[in-house]
Amino acid sequence: MTAQDFDVLPSAYNAFEEAFKQGIKVAIVHLNNQDWNWSHRDRGILVSKSLDHRARNEAVAHCIAHFDLSSSRKGQEALKWVGWRGRLEMDIHSMVAGRMISLPALSDAISLSEDFVDVAACLGVSEFLLSWRLQYLTDDEIGELPVHALNRLQWGPSHDTVVPTGCGWPPPGTGDMYLQIAKHQL
Prior knowledge:
Layout lengths: L14 H7 L3 E5 L6 E4 L4 E5 L4 H17 L3 H7 L5 H16 L2 H10 L3 H8 L3 H9 L3 H5 L3 H6 L14 E2 L7 H8 L3
Parallel strand pairs: 1-3, 2-4
Antiparallel strand pairs: 2-3
């Protein structure tokens, strides 16, 4: 069975809708150097037109997690270049994976296929995000999943996946993000 043999399970997390609810402006634009950029001061997100819908949803979800953590001590330190940004990115990947891959959806997807690529396609997420979610499942979360399906899934902690997109950290807030969004409204 391949991903084409069944429908994509609906994602419980629509990042565009969540951004709207939080008053975050999102624009799909041509970006040269990265796949997305965000500014906590401008409350704006720019996402590259070159990304497909799934990747755009993940990009916006990733930026929302940045907004969620930007007021934390770790987020403030990362923004000021006194904290390791890589550590914050790891926290963000965990938040996004948890938001976009619910346990019920993961349970359904791994019950449908043992192929890792098909499961990611079924969930409508990147292989990277699925791999991250699986790698950081808690013991309690594992207890809620069909263990036989986890065991037959063709994945392990050393499963190599590529981070699918590049995150652009914001320059000092100048209001420039709003100007770019105003020029490139959806």
